[in-house]
Amino acid sequence: MNEMDITHPPSAEQFHRTVYAIWDFQQALSALIFLLEECDLSSKYTKAQIRRFKCYESQAIISFCRPFAQSKNGSQLSLKRIQVTLGADESRLKKDVLHLRNKIIAHSDSEEMHYKGVLIGIEDPLELKAPLLIFDEGLHLSLNQIQNLELLLRKLISAITEYTFILCKSYPELFETYKIPASRSN
């Protein structure tokens, strides 16, 4: 990244969103690292183990997407502000991960639901049937996507960190703050 000239400070909301993006991306990166450390995608696992891996994957997806989602006040992370340009593959990955978050992970949109239902006959005089529902228990991201997302997260964390150091030189007063949630300020 070239030395930035920050002639105008970001708004308070832009500043908070940029700072918090560091934490969001660190959370996503940690979840991916835990997933890669514990899961060999070529191995077979129990349903409980797979669900633990899905928890890591879901946390990575949600945390990665949080800075790009528009908040109530309209603030979201600006890649232009932190001077990051995504390549075509990175843009596609970001789009795919945002789709997973918006349609599958954070919401259960019916067009993305994946399950199978079958009826099992119960041997009794009443000829009762019981439903058996089978859900997709696999991960949503491939190993290649996970590895590329890890690289993208490292790139974004580095860019935001550099941006905040440069911002601190021109506007140190922005960093002398203690931001607490509105729900705790009463």
Automatic annotation (TrEMBL):
This is HEPN AbiU2-like domain-containing protein. It comes from Pseudomonas aestuarii.
